[in-house]
Amino acid sequence: MQRWMRAPALAGALVLLAVAPAIACGGDDDAAAPASGDAAYPVTATALPGRSVAIEAAPEGLVTTSPSAIELLADVGGTAIARSSTATAVPGAAELADIGPSYQPSFEQIVALDPDLVIADASAQAHLAGAFEEALGGTPTLFVGARAYADLAASARILGAAIAAPEQAEESASAFEAVAREVGGGAGASPRVLVLVAGRDGTLSAALGASFVGDLVALLGGDNVAAALPQSGPVPGYALISPESIVSFDPEVLLVVTPGGGPSIAGIVSAQLPELAAVRSGRIHELDLEVYLQVPGPRAREGLRALASLLHPG
Predict the structure, then answer these.
(1) pLDDT (mean) for 37-46
(2) Cβ within 8 Å of residue 174, ≥6 positions away
(3) Is residue 19 a contact partner of residue 237, using CB atoms and an 8 Å limit?
(4) Predicted structure pTM score
(5) pLDDT digit string (tens) for 137-167?
């Protein structure tokens, strides 16, 4: 396979693309019902298949273990006492206790904070569910996050039930759904779309239908030409792709993500594959790393609108 460039490390992006199980309020209807102070408790919510979380009383010390978790929590009106190392987008987050990177949270630091509720990331940390349970013992751990755009509204409602903030949670969830109704399906013909992400070793990966950004493309009526490729490489939801395959797909719209602040691969692809329809028409666009890959959360609302304008201009 041709090497394209020596891009900076993809460590955060790759880990944060782990496939998330479906997210839903589970068991009885208590998790989805409107809550009002302590009278709503105990609450039972299910965010990972087979993992019901019982929250006995209104949690006050909330620890978040990923950027998505803290941004979703803030969007429903919750306040954390701790966050993961890179989760600094929420105002004031940089001043909170740091429990380490999302891909390797420090359970010792979490335990030392004596939290009432830990909010983990179903997209990034599903594979660590057993480790959370073993390390945190009886501390309730609620997994939220997104593999697909619709999961964001579900996560908002789960969090709202957990922290007795149903009204703001419903506002958050309804806002996600309103944007999807506003731009979903797109207008006119479905353009052939390819989403490429640069790897640290110079390889390129294409977003499959199972990736978060792949779901956004489908929601907007785009024809993701790589949607059904077999999974390959280290990132669930992505497949390694060669320049020859890119040429054979000949996308009308090429979306690229360059992690780590390195040189944009848009220019490199344009120079090396000038025959692509997307290059000839100028429809090659750089996407924001956090919005579309690393931190699926509230910022995805504007991200979905922005993507709609790229796929269906005018």
Answers:
(1) 74
(2) 153
(3) yes
(4) 0.85
(5) 889 999 998 999 999 999 999 999 999 999 9
